[in-house]
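GTP cyclohydrolase 1, pasting as requested.
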Amino acid sequence: MAQRDVPEASAVAAAPRKRSHESPAASSAGNDNSSSNGSSYSSTSDRDTSTARQRRKDRRRRQNNSSSHSHHHQHKRPNVNGRGSSAAAPSDLNGSSRAASGNANGAAFQQRRDSLGKAARDPRDQAPVRRRAVVAGQGQRVRPPSPVIDDDGLSRPGRGTRQRRLEDEPEAEQRLERMRGAVRTLLECVGEDPDREGLLDTPSRYAKALLFLTGGYQVNVEDLVNNALFHEGHNEMVIVKDIEIHSLCEHHLVPFTGKMHIGYIPSDTVIGLSKLPRIAEMYARRLQIQERLTKEVAHAIMEILKPQGVAVVMESSHLCMVMRGVQQRSSSTITSCVLGCFERKSKTRNEFLSLVGINRS
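Structure tokens follow.
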């Protein structure tokens, strides 16, 4: 019994060696016979291979993301010139430039929006702030002072303005006599004889003329306007142009003459048209410079009328430049002052300049 089992065992042991020498057809047949047993193994192997491949892809993706992130946060290194420079990957340059452009556009948009929001709250369009408390007497009205109109209605009063305005007739005659003596001294100092026929009354004439030419110091704005304000609901531009101006240069006491153009956009309230030239004359009848004269007229109208905006342009010729100094006989000087909507809106300002003939294009 044992002897018969030995050949069977050796035959079983030799079986694999015989399969290695079988033909391809036999081997294929053997594989077909065993496919049912190995199908589950092949499917599991394919899934493992696919999972490993996906893991490798995920690992590479994480590495790429980590590398890109490190480029964005790379520290600056000093270059050969000693200044800091940041190294960025070439692939990040386009993205960085797009981000910078987006930030710049966003900042510009925010700035424009802020400027539009601030325009409506321009403090220069508000009523002047009261500089000090004014206590009104019985039957008197309190009005806020301003840089050009004081609390008693006088415009830019000087040290002796109120004294001259309140003096009686004897005091006025004493003032005039002092002025005559000063003019007589000037004539003597230039080598003239103030007692000759042509100059005999010159000191008195000149003193009276100078008081007339500086009479604007004594004008009360409220008396000048005389309540000529009318609520007409008008909110379009109003212009009075070619107002003749004659004033004295405060540097040399010689005249400068020219024309002034005044425009404003009402806030439903208009002023009598004749009051605009009167306001201009009030500030011209004093010792002036053209720049200040233009500004004072604009600010006075802004306070009296409370409009949306005021624009004043003046063009004049100065005898101190014509008769002496550089002696430029054909030169002229143009000054302007724009407030409120004329200052904020270039379209409104250009419309005014075009209507008064300054924009000659």
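Note for the archive: Residues 160-217 form a domain with the GTP Cyclohydrolase I; Chain A, domain 1 fold (CATH 1.10.286.10).
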